[in-house]
Specification:
single chain; Rossmann fold; 7-stranded mixed beta sheet; 9 strands
Length: 255
């Protein structure tokens, strides 16, 4: 096992607790093609490489981390991409399906999830460590105060499990917040029973004004309709009360 050199880049705190690293890797149930996002100094990578059932590729944007990985894990060279995950053409990298794993940089974790949503049919599973508050938000159900935009958009396509909490002492430098590991598993939904772009607009518009009723927050959308449907469900509710299925029903009524 190579010593981990503490570094901080792009707002990332590097995991140094080997027990936590092993637990994250063992939480991945997929086999075959796997992409690790942001390996840093390789604390997860070293265990992923030990699993011969995985065809591992890694993407790292930080040049210093890339050099460190190449020095300590030379066998990784053909599978290491120095690139911005958010700008990668993942369909070219993987011809079929692939799982995603990583200690996601907390300042861009939401952008990473939106990127995953864009290729959701190719990504059956995601195991990642993110800020605890964000993990709780993603796994929350209707009625929770932390249920929000990304909760609905991700849960439309994935089952989300909050696996375990990780304390500040597992990192160098220690962050000021707790972290958590979650697992996303693709559900059986092939398509939404409504227009997907309108669905996203409805979810974002209503949660951006979450203190208002849906009727009031959707006034611009309703006024743009050629004619109002005879019945639109859930207009007098607030967005945090609606499940994914109810957002789909609401959106369908607006088409």
């Amino acid at each position: 096992m190579h010593p981990v050199r503490p570094k901080k880049a792009l707002g990332q705190h590097f995991l140094t607790d080997q027990g936590v690293a092993r637990s994250i890797v063992s939480s991945l149930r997929s086999r075959g093609d796997v992409l690790e996002v942001g390996p840093g100094t390789g604390v997860l990578t070293q265990y992923l490489l030990q699993d011969k059932d995985l065809n591992l590729k890694v993407v790292e944007i930080d040049g210093e981390s890339v050099r460190y990985l190449l020095e300590h894990y030379p066998a990784l060279a053909p599978a290491l991409y120095e690139a911005d995950f958010l700008k990668m053409d993942l369909a070219r990298l993987f011809p079929g399906s692939f799982a995603v794993i990583g200690n996601f940089p907390y300042n861009i974790s939401s952008q990473i999830f939106f990127k995953i949503l864009d290729c959701r049919d190719a990504v059956p599973e995601v195991v990642c460590m993110i800020q605890k508050e964000v993990a709780e938000r993603l796994a929350a159900g209707p009625g929770s105060k932390v249920y929000g935009i990304l909760s609905v958009l991700l849960q439309a396509w994935y089952d989300i499990e909050y696996l375990f909490t990780v304390g500040e002492g597992a990192f160098l430098p220690p962050p000021k917040v707790k972290s958590a590991v979650i697992r996303l598993t693709r559900n059986g939904r092939g398509r939404l029973d409504c227009d997907e772009e309108l669905f996203k607009k409805v979810v974002k518009t209503t949660f951006n004004q979450r203190r208002k009723t849906i009727r009031n927050s959707l006034k611009p959308v309703l006024s743009a309709l050629p004619s109002l449907p005879a019945f639109i469900p859930y207009l007098d509710a607030r967005p945090e009360q609606l499940s994914v299925e109810e957002f789909v029903e609401l959106t369908s009524a607006l088409q």
